[in-house]
Design goal:
CATH architecture: Roll
Number of domains: 1
CATH superfamily: Hotdog Thioesterase
Shape: globular
Structural class: alpha+beta
Strand content: 25-35%
Strand order of the largest sheet: 1-3-4-5-2-7-10-9-8-6
Length: 273
């Protein structure tokens, strides 16, 4: 299955970019709330905006909107959704309290066979504008899988690098996961429903949001490198809320190392010149 992007429908969502929401997220991260009307938003904070609320009957078993139908993502018959990674190009700063438009299109939707069975590979492209100017282009990669086979061996995650020049330890409480889900209007039950995460999707605990890990890496990259021009990231192993992790950086490369040395996410950042 593939998609012709030239004729693909677009989804347009507008948002006033409420500064209180960004300030609340800063507080949830343990940062000093500093965002006010007119403030430049930190990178990736647009995830807090452009909600598309749907009634309960329009949601799937996992709490996400059902695929197929009028949505951008087709139903490929694979129930487990994962945010696999993405790429961002920062053209101009997004500012809080200013109306913005987000246009989303489906760039790719195809079914493949991987080591663990059938996969649905989806790429969405989002463009965000304020006052008529393109501020951000984002490519958002999703993977859909079958339900896990309890008898199948667990996949072996890659080992993370240990040559970092900068390292920051981070931890994730169930409260933080709940607050991030609420601020991003993300209903995926793997982040707050332990029974569902363990018994249906086969995880060992509540799963830390992939974009929350990417958010930490982006904030670290901007702190060390200055404003970003581009950022790309790829998830490689889920992190549970009961696990601490280390944010690592060496040059343009960043990664998240789990407590057992596994790589949970890798990323590359490019600063503005």
């Amino acid at each position: 299955m593939s998609n012709d992007t030239a004729s693909a429908p677009a989804l347009l969502v507008t948002d006033m970019m409420d500064p209180a929401r960004a300030a609340a997220f800063q507080a949830a991260l343990g940062l000093t709330p500093q965002v006010a009307a007119g403030s430049r938003l930190p990178p990736f904070f647009h995830q807090l905006y452009f909600w598309t609320p749907l009634p309960p009957g329009a949601l799937g078993r996992d709490g996400h909107p059902k695929v197929g139908g009028a949505g951008l993502i087709p139903d490929m018959g694979l129930p487990r959704r994962m945010w696999a990674g993405g790429r961002l190009r920062f053209q101009a700063p997004l500012r809080a309290g200013i109306a913005a438009e987000k246009t989303s299109v489906l760039e790719k939707a195809e079914r493949k066979t991987g080591r663990t069975g059938p996969l649905g590979i989806v790429t969405l492209r989002h463009e965000i504008r304020q006052e008529g100017a393109l501020c951000l282009t984002e490519w958002h990669d999703l993977v859909y899988r079958e339900d896990p086979d309890p008898a199948a061996p667990k996949p072996v995650p890659p080992e993370a690098r240990t040559d970092e020049t900068e390292a920051r330890e981070v931890s994730f409480s169930s409260t933080l996961l709940f607050r991030y889900s609420a601020l991003t209007f993300n209903g995926h039950r793997i982040h707050y429903d332990l029974d569902y995460a363990r018994d249906v999707e086969g995880y060992e605990g509540l799963v830390v949001h992939g974009p929350l890990l990417a958010q930490h890496l982006m904030l670290l990259a901007e702190e060390l490198m200055g404003p970003l021009a581009e950022f790309s990231f790829r998830a490689s192993s889920p992190l549970m809320h009961s696990e601490s992790a280390v944010l690592c950086r060496n040059g343009p490369d960043l990664w998240v190392r789990g407590p057992d040395g596994r790589q949970c996410m890798s990323a590359t950042a490019a600063p503005k010149l």
